[in-house]
Specification:
4-stranded mixed beta sheet; 6-stranded parallel beta sheet; 9 helices; 2 domains; alpha/beta; Alpha/beta knot; 60s Ribosomal Protein L30, Chain: A
């Protein structure tokens, strides 16, 4: 898959003005982006990240970058309300990707979600893997059949989902045995990073915390595997 990038100050500014879905803008450490670019990025909620000039040039595939390159999303994002409405209408589920930074894991989760009849994913704008070529490939293209919504506050969005009649369950250690719990649909399944788990703010908004029992000596599952188990438990009565 071709890299989805735009480089150069004016092209990035025009991409922002045109409302293109931009995952992130990388700026070389020794570069000073125009105020207009910084303002537009802030207005659109797009993160600017300082990296080496070499990294900018690698992403752009050229040395003529003017010190800036934008990573475009391969999919359009939807308003969270659209994601929530579809989950409710179909009596289904969606996943919540909470600070998972490995694009391979994100892609695997999206693939499982689509295979098991989920409607999509709610993703944080902060500290989460961008939706890039690696995510698309790992999902085997499943992402193109899902609704994806990106928000600045997962907690606030999930409260809105609950107000609409949805349920929220966190997959985390120290909760109720997932085998003995009947997951109610429509619902959101929260999956956190492997090192820190689900954020405390999201545990607080959850209706319940569900735990996958383990008998081996290894203390945790890969988040892709944990997510697959949780999604299967959510839908196995309906498949």
């Amino acid at each position: 898959m071709e890299k989805l990038t735009v480089h150069g100050r004016n092209p990035v500014i025009e991409a922002l003005r045109a409302g293109r879905e931009i995952e992130k803008i990388y700026v070389a450490h020794d570069s000073h982006p125009p105020r207009e670019l910084v303002r537009l990025a802030k207005d659109r909620g797009v993160k600017l990240q300082k990296v080496s000039r070499q990294k900018v040039e690698e992403l752009a595939g050229t040395k003529k970058t003017q010190g800036v390159v934008a990573l475009l999303s391969p999919v359009p994002y939807v308003h969270p309300g659209e994601l929530f409405s579809e989950a409710i209408e179909k009596n289904s589920f969606f996943i919540v990707i909470d600070h998972i930074t490995d694009p391979q894991n994100v892609g695997n989760l999206l693939r499982t979600c689509e295979v098991l009849g989920g409607v999509g994913a709610l993703i944080s704008k902060e500290k989460t893997s961008p939706i890039n070529q690696t995510v698309v490939k790992a999902s085997s293209g499943a992402i193109f059949h899902l609704k994806v919504s990106k928000v600045s506050s997962l907690q606030r969005a999930l409260r809105e989902f609950k107000d609409m009649g949805g349920w929220v369950f966190a997959i985390e250690k120290g909760g109720r045995d997932i085998r003995e719990f009947e997951i109610v649909l429509p619902c959101a399944l929260i999956l956190g990073s492997e090192d820190k788990g689900v954020s405390k703010s999201l545990l607080d908004v959850s209706d319940d915390i569900l735990t996958i029992p383990m008998r081996g000596k290894t203390t945790s599952l890969n988040v892709g595997s944990a997510g697959a188990i949780a999604m299967w438990e959510a839908v196995r009565r309906f498949i």
